[in-house]
Specification:
The chain is mostly helical. The chain is 80% helix and 0% strand. It starts with a helix and ends with a helix.
């Protein structure tokens, strides 16, 4: 139960982080917002590592480098998709893919969830798909929808790689691998900003706001790490991947995006998935 609660806390933090990042990316370059967000994440993760301590081994640092690269690319593609498309399409699709990658990694690593838990995982993946589905009559355009799906898949591959790598951190390492992952992400995103020739500077007020998604993202990663130390990666990754529920609800309340019938069913199925995993 501890792992499930930590994974749900991770999902809530991720959902809010993605919503804020998507809103900010509508005004400034997604790469710029992603970079500032990762700087905020690095500050938060570094402070937490200093407070908690730990003794990372070289293998932890190697996994951290992979996690940071995946997180950086996932964040950039997600923000680009959120800025150009519907939040209720891009975020859930990225979540389906990001959940599938660590599930495969967990099974390959020898994890064998109970049958009821497998049922919860299956319901969770279907739930995310339902939340992602937008009826053709309500899609903005075929091109826009295709672009949103593409960015969602790319973001999911990045995040899924990061989640699978984080699941390999040793408990003795503390939070130092998290901090290193955020440092690597900052370097990767800085290179991306230069490559696409996006601006780095932001007005002081927007710069401060741009740090917040990263702080929330670092908080989510910390909850995710602790969750993997109390439960199976296959389970924790799917529960954490339910974060689009929060993103979709916020998009509906703040941006007035309509929640369609299928999405409503998907949101209800999210609750069923959590209940099945908890019961298992």
């Amino acid at each position: 139960m501890t792992a499930i609660l930590l994974a749900l806390a991770s999902a809530a933090a991720y959902g809010l982080s993605d919503f804020l990042g998507g809103v900010l990316s509508k005004r400034d370059s997604p790469w710029t917002i992603a970079l500032w967000g990762q700087i905020g994440a690095l500050l938060a993760a570094g402070a937490a590592a200093l407070a908690i301590g730990g003794a990372p081994a070289p293998v932890d640092l190697a996994w951290a480098a992979l996690a940071g690269t995946g997180s950086a690319l996932g964040t950039a593609f997600l923000y680009r998709g959120l800025a150009a498309g519907r939040m209720s399409v891009v975020a859930p699709i990225s979540a389906v893919v990001s959940a599938a990658v660590p599930v495969v990694a967990g099974v390959a690593g020898g994890e064998r969830p109970a049958p009821l838990v497998w049922g919860g995982i299956a319901v969770g993946l279907v739930a995310i798909w339902l939340v992602a589905r937008v009826p053709p009559a309500h899609a903005a355009s075929r091109t826009g929808t295709a672009a949103s799906i593409r960015d969602g898949v790319l973001a999911g591959l990045g995040f899924g790689t990061a989640f699978a790598a984080i699941g390999q951190f040793r408990e003795e390492a503390g939070l130092w691998p998290n901090a290193l992952a955020m440092l690597v992400a900052v370097v990767v995103l800085a290179a991306g900003v230069l490559l696409v020739r996006a601006g780095i500077a932001l007005p002081s007020r927007r710069a401060g706001l741009a740090l917040l998604p990263g702080v929330l993202g670092a908080t989510a990663l910390t909850f995710f790490l602790f969750a993997t130390q109390h439960g199976l990666l296959t389970v924790v990754s799917v529960i954490s991947a339910l974060y689009p529920a929060a993103t979709v609800i916020l998009a509906a309340l703040v941006l007035r995006e309509r929640i369609h019938r299928g999405q409503a069913v998907g949101l209800a199925a999210c609750a069923v998935a959590v209940a099945l995993v908890a019961a298992g």
